[in-house]
Specification:
With 153 residues, the protein is mainly α. It is built from 8 helices and 3 strands; from the N terminus they run H-E-H-H-H-H-H-E-E-H-H.
Length: 153
């Protein structure tokens, strides 16, 4: 029954589209976004707050809190490495980017942003929004150089 409703919804959506209508979808180079995010002021603010918590916990001799914050740091370092290698989802990065995505989509002229688009029929036009994401993340010259190298691979 559930499948019926999904199929009915898909038919209803596609029925409203003429075969000549193109849907523009924003896509991006994930490794570039990972590098830019972890080098961004957005992430620096998160780290600064966590470091302040860690310093306060050390000053208060709160061993449990120190252990938890150090574990948080180690886990996020490992996550960043796994994300860069494509072995972990970038959910936390997409959540951090979410406030800026509507404006990025508007600027790119896309109706949808998708980190992965393994298939698209001819009515879908992909638009690379990686550069707009670099702008949003305030990527510096060093980060942009790394990103250029990553995109050549």
């Amino acid at each position: 029954m559930k499948l019926f409703f999904v199929l009915a919804a898909a038919i209803a959506v596609t029925a409203g589209l003429s075969t000549a209508q193109t849907i523009r979808v924003g896509t991006f180079h994930k490794p570039s976004v990972v590098v830019a995010f972890y080098g961004s002021p957005l992430w620096a603010d998160v780290n600064k707050a966590k470091r302040a918590e860690l310093d306060a916990a050390k000053k208060a001799n709160d061993a449990g809190k120190v252990r938890d914050l150090e574990a948080w740091g180690n886990a996020h370092q490992e996550l960043a490495h796994r994300q860069l290698a494509g072995e972990a989802p970038i959910t936390n990065i997409l959540e951090a980017l979410s406030p800026g995505l509507p404006e990025i989509a508007r600027r790119a002229g896309v109706k949808l942003i998708a980190p992965d688009l393994p298939f698209a029929d001819p009515t879908v036009q992909t638009v690379d929004i990686t550069d707009l994401l670099m702008d949003y993340l305030k990527a510096d010259a060093h980060t942009l150089e790394i990103v250029r190298d990553l995109r050549k691979r």
